[in-house]
Amino acid sequence: MAPAARPVRPAGDGRHRHTLDGLHVAQVLTRAVLPHMPAAGRGAIVNTASEAGLRGSAAGAAYTASQHGVVGLTKSLAVLYRKQGIRANAICPGGTRTGIAVDAEEGAHGPAALAPHFANLGRVARPEEQAAAIVFLASAAASNINGAILPVDDGWSAV
């Protein structure tokens, strides 16, 4: 029997804005580089979303929504700018060794609530492994890859 669903905890404005930073940063950086790419006749945008952008059970609701936004932005850019030679792809890291603190609060998005969804996490990646995927997607070796959302998660998204 599945555990009882917990209500989505309302986030304060500051916390909500912080949660949406990943989407905001992707939009701001895209606006900064995109005007320079058509003149070159090519370009590659590689966003970093998250495993949370592939499913609804990898993180809290607000963070998951923001990561789905990064995925949607990436796919839209791929379609809108492909005729100008501009590609847009994203990686969706799974568990990665970082210094990011985990909110251990016992709430709707705390570790106790999310633990069952991490049972198939697999090996936790080093940041260099995520960077290698980004370098590949930005390279000429990926010249016909556009609109791809690449999980870099040791198979976690395949479960």
Break the fold down into its secondary structure elements and pairings.
Layout: H1 13-19, H2 21-33, H3 37-40, E1 43-48, H4 61-81, E2 86-93, H5 111-114, H6 127-138, E3 149-152
Parallel strand pairs: 1-2, 2-3
Describe the fold and architecture.
The relative contact order is 0.18. The chain is globular, with a radius of gyration of 17 Å. It has helices at 13-19, 21-33, 37-40, 61-81, 111-114, 127-138; strands at 43-48, 86-93, 149-152. It contains six helices and three strands. A three-stranded parallel β-sheet has the order 1-2-3, with helices on both faces. It has a single domain (20-25, 41-158), classed as 3-Layer(aba) Sandwich (Rossmann fold). It is 38% helix and 11% strand. It has 159 residues and is an alpha/beta fold.
In N-to-C order, the SSE pattern is HHHEHEHHE
CATH architecture: 3-Layer(aba) Sandwich
How would you write the strand order of the largest sheet? 1-2-3
**What is the total number of structural domains?**
1
How does the helix and strand content classify structurally? alpha/beta
Largest sheet, if any?
3 strands, parallel
First-last Cα distance: 20 Å
Features of the shown structure:
159 residues; Rossmann fold; three-stranded parallel beta sheet; 6 helices; 11% strand; disordered N terminus
